[in-house]
Amino acid sequence: MTKDAAELALMVEAGARLAKVFDALDGLQLAGRSTLEINDFVERMIVEDLQSRPASKGQYGFPFVLNASIDDVVCHGVPSADDVLRSGQIVNLDITLEKDGYIADSSTTYLVGEVAYPARRLVAAAYRAMWKGIAAVRPGARLGDIGHAIARYAGAKGYSVVKEYCGHGIGREMHEEPQILHYGRPGTGMVLKEGMVFTIEPMLNQGRAAIRSDPDQWPVYTRDGKLSAQFEHTVAVTRTGVRVLTLRPGEVPP
How far is it, in rounded angstroms, from Cα 5 to Cα 145? Predict the structure, then answer.
C-alpha cells in the first residue's frame, strides 16, 4: 500500500508527464472539436511525445485513452466523433498515464467558450473541494478527514457530492487500496502514513447527488439532468504533509 523512495520517484515522473498533457489541453481550443479528436490528440502526445502508455486504454474493455464527460455526465463519458463541443458546455477530461510500470491519474473540468455563471460557479467549487481534501492529507490524519473536508465545503456552497464513486490508491495498478471517499466523519477511517499514494477526485452536482447509468456504466449521468463537475489529482503522503504528483506547470493551489 505504501511506496518506497524508488517507487515514489517513478510515480513522480509519471505524474509530471501527465501534468504536461493537461498543460497542452489548457491551451487547446475545445469548441468545435469532437471528444474523439481530443482523445486522439491525447493519445498521440502520451505515446509519441512522452514515450508513455495511456493506462486507461484496454482496461475493463475500454477502447479509449480518456473519459470525456459533458454537462450532466458525472463520469465515464465515452469519446465520440458525434460529440462536438460547443460554447457554453463544460467537459471533464479524465486521463491516466503509465511510465516504467507506475500510473498517474488526473482530471480537469474545462469551460468550453462562453459559459454561464451557474456552471462556472459549480466548476470553481469542484476545484476548491478537491483542494480542501488535499489540504487534509498528512501523516496521522484519517481518511474520514479528507471526505469531511470535501463534503462540508460542497454543502456550504449548495452542492451535493456523488457517493457511488471515490478516489483510490494507485501505483502499479490503477485502482489499489484504500478507497478515498469524498464524504465522511473527521477522525474516522484508516490512518494516513508516509508513502501512501492515492487520488482525490470529488464529483459535485448542481442538484441532487442521485445518479443513473446505462447497464455497463458508460456513461453515468445526474438523475435530475443538472450539471456535474469533477477535478482529480494524484497525491502522496510525505513526512511533513502532502505532495501533489500531477500538479500542472504554473498551477497554484487556491
Answer: 26
